[in-house]
Design brief:
Layout lengths: L21 E5 L4 H13 L3 E5 L10 H6 L7 E4 L2 E3 L13 H11 L6 H19 L11 H16 L8 H13 L5 H21 L1
Helix pairs in contact: 1-5, 1-7, 4-6, 5-7
Length: 207
């Protein structure tokens, strides 16, 4: 079954027929942005996408700072209720910061130390071990943990700096996520953003 393991909606707390749309301030290369948007699409949440190009500094414009003084993305605006803390930082995975660190360093053309490469590899092994005993990142059903990690790992895979296929259980999970989310716009949201990031990184490496 294509979407096996996806947690059914709790209709007591979520109404997929809500009349209003939620604004999401979004940048396509940002894994947290894509993860949140992918989750909204999967849940059927009505939304308006508002692009904030962080490479051009648009997150520092006064009109965005009025919405989110911390100038972070993604940010959502649900009829005046502002939420700007991505769930990615709450996952608590071992050495999770190195997933973000690697992308930041690559993005700005820096180099990654051997020590950081080892820690990043250890983090991948940690995820691989989790998935050796679990269908999904946090158990037998898909959760926000899976949405968070697919955003990060799609960028890593597209940049070509790590061979995810060497982590067998992690790679199987990665392929399963792509299949499970295909009908919710995975190619247009997650893959397109990851490809844009990967193209930029490869150009930096080859320049």
């Amino acid at each position: 079954m294509e979407n096996e393991g996806v947690v059914p909606l709790n209709t007591k707390t979520f109404d997929p027929k809500m009349a209003h749309s939620i604004d999401i301030y979004y940048f396509t290369m940002s894994p947290p942005s894509r993860s949140v948007l992918m989750l909204m699409r999967t849940l059927g949440v009505k939304h308006n996408i508002k692009i904030v190009n962080v490479l051009n500094g648009e997150q520092m414009k006064p009109e965005f700072l009025k919405i989110n003084p911390l100038h972070t993305i993604p940010t959502i605006n649900d009829n005046g209720f502002i939420l700007s803390e991505s769930y990615c930082v709450t996952l608590g995975f071992k050495d999770f910061k190195f997933f973000s660190m690697l992308q930041i360093v690559l993005l700005f053309g820096g180099s990654v130390s051997d020590d950081d490469k080892k820690k990043f590899n250890d983090a991948l092994e940690y995820l691989d071990n989790i998935l050796s005993d679990s269908k999904w990142m946090a158990g037998e059903n898909m959760t926000v943990a899976d949405f968070a990690m697919i955003g990060i790992l799609s960028n890593v895979e597209a940049a070509g700096v790590y061979d995810l296929t060497s982590f067998n259980d992690l790679w199987q999970w990665y392929e399963k996520m792509k299949t499970s989310l295909s009908s919710y716009g995975y190619e247009d949201i997650m893959q397109a953003g990851a490809d844009a990031f990967g193209h930029m990184i490869k150009n930096k490496i080859n320049s």
